[in-house]
């Protein structure tokens, strides 16, 4: 019975505000963005008919310093033979400034679609961060 109270006591202390490790805060965050034009709630990617894919760079700011592993995905994928391919590279790493970059690319089939891009990571303290943005693939020319 003493062991049970001891274990419960450790759990209570381990999860309380008196434990400096458990209550340690981090100034990390996550914001993803693009240099594309922002119109009506989404970024616009003008499709280039002279390329197999039209691509752009997306930026992520974490303020967490270097070597944060960021995971990326989209709500659409493209099928090449038997493989499904995301429109964004699946991972990137932050540099010394806490910033990261990733390539987003769309095929002709995505003209007129609005693709949602997600980015997320977990910091060294176990906090989860997630952000998203929308990219509309347009052909205005």
Layout of secondary structure:
Elements: H1 2-14, E1 31-34, E2 38-39, E3 42-46, E4 54-61, E5 69-74, E6 77-80, E7 83-86, E8 91-93, E9 99-106, E10 114-122, E11 128-138
Parallel strand pairs: 3-11
Antiparallel strand pairs: 1-4, 2-3, 4-9, 5-8, 5-10, 6-7, 10-11
Oligomer: single chain
Count of structural domains: 1
How far from one another are the termini? 77 Å
Assign the CATH class.
Mainly Beta
Order of helices and strands: HEEEEEEEEEEE
What does the radius of gyration come to?
A: 21 Å
What does this structure look like?
The chain is globular, with a radius of gyration of 21 Å. It is built from one helix and eleven strands. The protein has a six-stranded mixed β-sheet with strand order 2-3-11-10-5-8, with no helix packed on it. The relative contact order is 0.24. The chain has one helix spanning 2-14; strands spanning 31-34, 38-39, 42-46, 54-61, 69-74, 77-80, 83-86, 91-93, 99-106, 114-122, 128-138. The chain has a single domain (28-138), classed as Immunoglobulin-like. Helices cover 9% and strands 45% of the residues. The termini are far apart. The chain has 141 residues and is mainly β. The model is unreliable at 1-23 (pLDDT under 50).
Offer a concise description of the structure.
This protein has one helix spanning 2-14; strands at residues 31-34, 38-39, 42-46, 54-61, 69-74, 77-80, 83-86, 91-93, 99-106, 114-122, 128-138. By secondary structure, it is mainly beta. The strands form 3 sheets. Strands 2-3-11-10-5-8 form a 6-stranded mixed beta sheet, with no helix packed on it. Strands 1-4-9 form a 3-stranded antiparallel beta sheet, with no helix packed on it.
């Amino acid at each position: 019975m003493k062991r049970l109270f001891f274990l419960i006591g450790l759990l209570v202390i381990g999860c309380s505000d008196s434990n400096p490790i458990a209550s340690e805060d981090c100034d990390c965050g996550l914001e993803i963005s693009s240099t594309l034009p922002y119109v009506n709630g989404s970024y616009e990617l003008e499709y280039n008919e002279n390329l197999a894919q039209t691509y752009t760079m997306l930026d992520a700011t974490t303020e967490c310093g270097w070597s944060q592993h960021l995971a990326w995905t989209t709500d659409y994928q493209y099928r090449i033979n038997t493989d499904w391919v995301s429109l964004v590279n699946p991972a990137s790493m932050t540099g010394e400034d806490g910033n990261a970059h990733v390539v987003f690319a769309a095929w002709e089939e995505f003209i007129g679609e609005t693709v949602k891009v997600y980015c997320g990571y977990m910091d060294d303290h176990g906090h989860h961060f997630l952000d998203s943005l929308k990219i509309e693939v347009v052909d205005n020319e």
